[in-house]
Amino acid sequence: MNAVKTATGYSNSYIQKFSPELKFLILCMKHYLQTEKEEELKEYSARIRNWDFFYNLILVHRLVFVVNHCIQTYPKLFPSKIKILLHNKQQQNVAAMMSLTGDLVNINRLFKEHNLSLTTIKGPVLAKSLYGDTSNTRVSRDLDILIDKDKLTPIDKLLQDNGFDLIINNKIAGCYLPQDYLAYELQTNHHIAYRSKKTKNLIEVHWQISRYKKIQAYEFDSAELLHEQINVLSEENNLLYLLWHGSIHHWRRLFWLLDIARFLQKSQFNWEKLIHTAETYHILRGVLSGIFLAAQLFDIRIPEPVRQKYLQDKKAIDQLTKLDLKLLMLNDNIPQQQTSKLVFYKNLIRSIHAEKLYSFTLNKRFKDKARILIANFHSPANREYIKLPQNLFFLYIPLRPFIIILMWFKKIRLKKKYNI
After folding, report:
1. How far is Cα 359 from Cα 320, in angstroms, rounded to an integer?
2. What phi and psi values does residue 144 have, to the nearest 5 degrees?
3. Under 8 Å CB-to-CB from 68, ≥6 apart: which residues?
4. 119, β-bridge pairs
5. Backbone angles phi, psi at 203, to 5 degrees
6. DSSP string for 386-401
7. For residue 250, is it left (φ>0), alpha (ψ between -120 and 50) or beta?
8. What distance in Å separates the CA atoms of residue 17 and residue 54, rounded to the nearest whole number?
9. Which of 8, 99, 206, 325 has the maximum number of C-beta atoms within 10 A of its C-beta?
10. Shortest CA distance to 207 belongs to which of 280, 282, 152?
11. pLDDT tens per residue across span 228-252
C-alpha cells in the first residue's frame, strides 16, 4: 500500500506505520468493495511476517466473511492453515447468526401478539440490507431492539415469561425488573439486557439509541425477515446511528467502517437532510469524520454536499481523521509488541491520550466539551443522591467523591436485595 492521500487532501503518515498484516486486511476489505488493486494484494501478502497475528486481527475486526471472499478469488495468497481456520470460523458465525435471526423473528412475533412495538437496530436485518445475507456475512454478538421506555415494565414481564432472563451486573436477576433498579438505569444508561434460556443469545433492549446524545426524531421503515415484517430505522437514520456509534468508539472495529463504505456505495441519500439532522443533534463532526475515514481507507467517493460541509469545519475533521488513524496504528502495534514493557506502556498511554483528545474534538459546542471535562465529577445520577438547584450545580464537582460512596453503598444494597 503506497503513501496515500487522504480524502481531506493531506498525506497521512499513520497508514504507512500500519503493520503489513493490518494493511493486507484493509486491502482484503477493498477487494470486497471492489476498489483494490491486485498487485497491492500480492505485494502485501508476501510481506506478512506473522499469519497468526493476521488471523487475530480478522477476529478482532470481525471480518471473517471479507477475507473468505478474498480467498475465493486469490487462494494462493493465503497459507492452508489460515484457509482452514477461517472456513471453520465462518461455519460457527453462520450458525450463530441463524440463531440470532430466529430469536429476533420470535421476539418480533411475540411483541405483535401483545400489541407492543419494537424496532431492530443493526443485527441480521442490517446484514441482509448491506450485504444481501443474514447469516453468511456481517456478524453480530447480540440483538439490539429499540422500544418505548414507558413500556419497559410490561416488556420485561413478557420477555421473562417467555424464556428470557433479565441480566443485572452480568448475572441472572431471578426476578421481574425492580422499579428502583429501573429508575436507576433510566438515569444512567440507555439499555438493559436479557439472555435467552434456550439459545443463550444476549438481547439488549434500548429506550434510546445512544447514551451520549438523546436522538429522538427517528424515522422508520419495514423490512422482511423470514417472511415476517419487522420495523427498522430508515436508511438515513441507520447511517446516522452507525456513524455516531462508530465515532464515539473511535472506530476500533474495522467492520463498522465497512458498513459505512457499503452505505456510501449502494444508497442514494438526501445528503442535505442527513446533514441537517446531524446538525440538529450536534453529531455532525462524528458523521463527517466517519465518512471521510471510510473514504480514505477504501477509496470511496465522497458526496459533494458532505465535502462542502467539511470545508466549513476542516481543521476539526482533519484532526479527528488523523486521530482515528493514529488509534488504529497504536492498537495495531500494541498486541504484537515484543520490545520492552516501557515501550508497550508508552504506546498504551499514547492511545489513551488520543482517545481523550478525540472525544474532546468530536464535540463542537462548548457545553458538550465542558460536559466531557467534568464527566468524572458530575453525572445525571448525582441528582438522585443530592438534589441541588440549578444555580448550585457547580457544587456537584466537590461533592462527587461523597456521591460515589453513596452510589457504591446503593449498588451493594441492590445486590443483596435482589441476590445478584
Report:
1. 9
2. -120, 125
3. 86, 87, 90
4. 146, 231
5. -120, 120
6. S---GGGGGGHHHHHH
7. left
8. 16
9. 325
10. 152
11. 999 999 888 899 999 988 988 889 8
- For 251-299, what is each residue's pLDDT tens digit? 989 999 999 999 998 868 889 999 999 988 888 988 999 999 999 899 9
> What residue has cell string 448550585?
392
Cell (9 digits) for 1 = 500500500
Is the CB of residue 195 less than 8 Å from the CB of residue 189? no
In this structure, is the dihedral angle defined by the CA atoms of residues 274, 280, 281 and 287, taken in order, positive or negative?
positive
Comparing 397 with 167, which gets the higher pLDDT?
A: 167
**pTM listed for this prediction:** 0.81
d(CA 84, CA 131): 23
CB 322 within 8 A of CB 245: no
Q: Please give the backbone phi and psi of residue 351, each rounded to the nearest 5 degrees, phi first.
A: -65, -45
Rounded percentage of the chain residues whose pLDDT exceeds 90? 48
Question: Residues 202, 211: contact at Cβ < 8 Å?
Answer: no
∠ CA(371), CA(373), CA(375), 5° rounding? 60
Pairing of strands 228-233, 119-121: parallel
The sheet carrying 171-172 orders its strands as 171-172, 164-168, 191-196, 202-206, 142-146, 119-121, 228-233, 220-225
Task: From 52, 173, 190, 75, select the one nearest 418 (Cα to Cα).
Answer: 173
**79-114 b/e with 16+ CB inside 10 Å = b?**
eeebeebbeebbeebbebbebbbbbbbbbbebbeee
Q: What distance in Å separates the CA atoms of residue 75 and residue 57, rounded to the nearest whole number?
A: 19
C-alpha cell at 123: 443485527
